[in-house]
């Protein structure tokens, strides 16, 4: 792999675990090519308490007030006619500390893997306050407007279609990097047999039901019962939500798990993933050759991303219980439908990777519109 050499400051965010997973894989690839990296949580660059408050609000809304989060997403993230509220006041609060960090670390490139960080770097670059190039690695299929700022020098996106849309929106270079997923998900899993024995199922194909690191989403027990009634062995991933783990354990005929470190092995032992967030878990499943079906998605970016994934042909979207069962029946059985979906998803891992970042290490300055 030809990765660029240089010093890279990566801005992530502790909103669940997906952004940190992307940051870790980005750092691994850059370091494999001789680069040096440091990863910082952009929420920690906000004034004391602000980052924690933002994370708590988001987590609480996702768990207990999804309609509130849907409204926030519609107002602040989705494109629309006329003036729209933005994140500029929040981004401004992180600028001073980021500039201090840049003076301290002296990176050659700053790379954002969270949309708030992209707004901070874009604003600073547009004013000339940030004197090193800034790139944005978009982790979402739903490329909402908070990811976009014309001050940033370069964008990495999951697919070519998404990159084309970003290029039109900000008139900056945008490339299809593909999904930044750890290589262990793309390799055979030695522990798959252990997981098959552990899950049992007595001939009922195991189907994972994911709720993300925070164990978020509604109707998880209902989804597990539906999957079981259709003849499958539901395996519910509750993340770090112990309360959800207890609730589903009592209410649903499922194998219920908390946070799982060996996701490659578990995925290799499963026939499909029922996902509600269109995030990193879905991409890891695709890397492992496991079909993904979006169902009962969380609002905002979760639903928007799930719809875009389905439009791109890499996953299925089930708008209701009947559609979920039909999708499971089609995608868990050996045959053309399963193979087509797995093949389409595999294309997400054949992109440019981190190679486009090489252009930002050149001393020529800012790039053209591409």
Automatic annotation (TrEMBL):
GO molecular function: hexosyltransferase activity
Recorded coiled-coil stretches: none
Cellular component GO terms held in the UniProt record: membrane
UniProt cross-references to Gene3D superfamilies, sorted A to Z: Glycogen Phosphorylase B
Keyword Ribosomal protein set for record: no
Biological process, per Gene Ontology: glycolipid biosynthetic process
Boundaries of every Diacylglycerol glucosyltransferase N-terminal domain copy: 19-166
Keywords, ordered alphabetically: Glycosyltransferase, Transferase
Family: Belongs to the glycosyltransferase 28 family.
PANTHER family from the UniProt entry: MONOGALACTOSYLDIACYLGLYCEROL SYNTHASE, MONOGALACTOSYLDIACYLGLYCEROL SYNTHASE 1, CHLOROPLASTIC
Protein name: Glycosyltransferase
Organism: Streptomyces nitrosporeus
Taxonomic lineage from the root: Bacteria, Bacillati, Actinomycetota, Actinomycetes, Kitasatosporales
């Amino acid at each position: 792999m030809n990765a660029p050499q240089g010093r890279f400051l990566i801005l992530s965010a502790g909103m669940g675990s997906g952004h940190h997973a992307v940051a870790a894989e980005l750092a691994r690839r850059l370091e494999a090519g001789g680069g040096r990296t440091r990863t910082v949580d952009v929420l920690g660059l906000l004034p004391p308490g602000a980052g924690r408050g933002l994370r708590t609000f988001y987590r609480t809304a996702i768990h207990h007030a999804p309609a509130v989060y849907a409204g926030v997403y519609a107002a602040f993230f989705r494109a629309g006619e006329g003036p729209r509220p933005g994140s500029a006041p929040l981004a401004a609060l992180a600028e001073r500390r980021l500039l201090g960090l840049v003076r301290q670390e002296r990176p050659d490139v700053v790379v954002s893997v969270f949309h708030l960080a992209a707004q901070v770097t874009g604003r600073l670059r547009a004013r000339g306050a940030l004197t090193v190039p800034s790139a944005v690695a978009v982790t979402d299929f739903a490329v909402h407007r908070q990811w976009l700022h014309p001050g940033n020098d370069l964008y990495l996106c999951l697919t070519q279609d998404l990159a084309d849309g970003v290029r039109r929106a900000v008139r900056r270079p945008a490339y299809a990097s593909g999904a930044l997923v750890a290589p262990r998900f793309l390799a055979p899993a030695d522990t798959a047999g252990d997981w098959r024995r552990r899950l049992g199922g007595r001939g009922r194909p195991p189907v994972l039901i994911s709720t993300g690191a925070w164990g978020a989403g509604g109707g998880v027990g209902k989804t597990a019962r539906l999957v079981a009634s259709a003849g499958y062995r539901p395996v519910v991933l509750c993340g770090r939500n112990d309360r959800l783990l207890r609730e589903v354990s009592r209410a649903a005929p499922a194998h219920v798990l908390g946070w799982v470190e060996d996701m490659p092995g578990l995925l290799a032992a499963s026939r499909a993933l029922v996902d509600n967030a269109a995030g990193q878990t879905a991409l890891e499943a695709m890397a492992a050759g496991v079909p993904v079906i979006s169902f009962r998605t969380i609002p905002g970016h979760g639903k928007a991303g799930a719809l875009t994934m389905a439009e791109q042909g890499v996953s299925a979207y089930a708008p209701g219980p009947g559609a979920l069962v039909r999708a499971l029946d089609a995608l868990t059985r050996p045959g053309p439908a399963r193979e087509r979906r797995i093949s389409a998803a595999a294309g997400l891992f054949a992109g440019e990777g981190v190679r486009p970042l090489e252009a930002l290490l050149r001393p020529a300055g800012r790039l053209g519109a591409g």
